[in-house]
Amino acid sequence: MELTHLDQIKEILETGELRRIEFEKTEDIEIINLFQGIYGVAYAWYAAGCRTLDDIRNKKAGIKVSEVQEIGLQHYDDINTRMPREEAHEIFVAIKETALSLDPKLFIEIMGSYRRGKSTCGDIDILITRSTEDGKTHEGILPTLLNMLQTMGIIHEHLSLPDLSVDPLEAVYRGLCVRPLREGEGPESKRLRRRIDFLTVPWINRGAALIYYTGDDIFNRSLRLKANKMGYSLNQKGLSAGVVRSPTRYTVKLCDGHMIASETEEEIFRILGVYSAAFHQVSADYECSRPSKVCLGKNLTNGYGPSKWSMLCLPVYPHGLLALGLRKLGAPATPQGRVKAIQAPSLNIVYTLPTLYKR
DNA sequence: CGGCAGTACTG
DNA sequence: CAGTAC
DNA sequence: GCCG
């Protein structure tokens, strides 16, 4: 008798949760993961024959290394060490204070793994926007803020600067920072470089932006897939209805539809039918309404089968979808993952297991 | 057998 | 366009 | 790899 998905899910939930990283322990994926620790790095480096960071430093096989990637190499260990939650907090507090000194009406929020309540953070994601009720906006704030933070010694190397020419309210900055000095601490004390992203969005898009940048990636993909199945489309700007897709090519949108929710996370989650008890909680509990990563385990392969997709993991979501993390294979392959989501009515059984709510 | 999230940016 | 970041 |  074949095991059903549900049998396997129950077994994993009962025997303990695994991380999807467990499924990535093949040599090529490990090396590609190593190279992806450098901002903007290409899978092409692996394809070109590079296998170590020194191969990259020595420009083996005639590969090109951009200025930004040199920064990534220089600070490789710093950038790829997760920071304690407390350190992310110190950096965020300093940035928020600085920003509010420019305009006390700015909306400044930290997103990413910090907002998901994680005890360590791989980077810092900061959202900046501003209520428009007094007719003003956050236009022009980001460059000024970045200059101040640089003077304060918080922001260091730039990886990508904001392009304000398209929409001055929508900008992205990526760079490296260090935490502010603590009380009585001299400038000689060692502080690791940390990855930091700033993004600004129009005030009305803040809810959708919060969902997207709070993540994680698999959660977003499953949520978007659910939106599609319900006839909507979700992106970092908002939830749209009336999207018409080509019957032959599903991904081709014939009609963009119209925005029905974007200002708050709650309205978007509510329309999508996502359990939202956590909205009454503080950020550290946010993760509890979010996916619990589990794997189907040894019964499923991560091997390179004849298919161009290889299974990595199976997160379980509170909104009633399972998603299989898949990796696209084949040459020229991209290591960017894909998600397969399955509508699973029986998932209600999973919800009741305490695993989903432990932290 | 098609589909697997959606968008922005780079070369 | 392919590749990559989020 | 697996679902519709």
Automatic annotation (TrEMBL):
Q: What is this protein called?
A: DNA polymerase
Family of the protein in this entry? Belongs to the DNA polymerase type-X family.
Q: Which GO terms describe its biological process?
A: double-strand break repair via nonhomologous end joining
Top EC group? transferase
Q: Which organism is it from?
A: Hericium alpestre
- List the EC numbers from the record: 2.7.7.7
Record's Gene Ontology CC terms? Answer: nucleus
Write out the entry's keywords from A to Z. Answer: DNA damage, DNA repair, DNA replication, DNA synthesis, DNA-directed DNA polymerase, Nucleotidyltransferase, Nucleus, Transferase
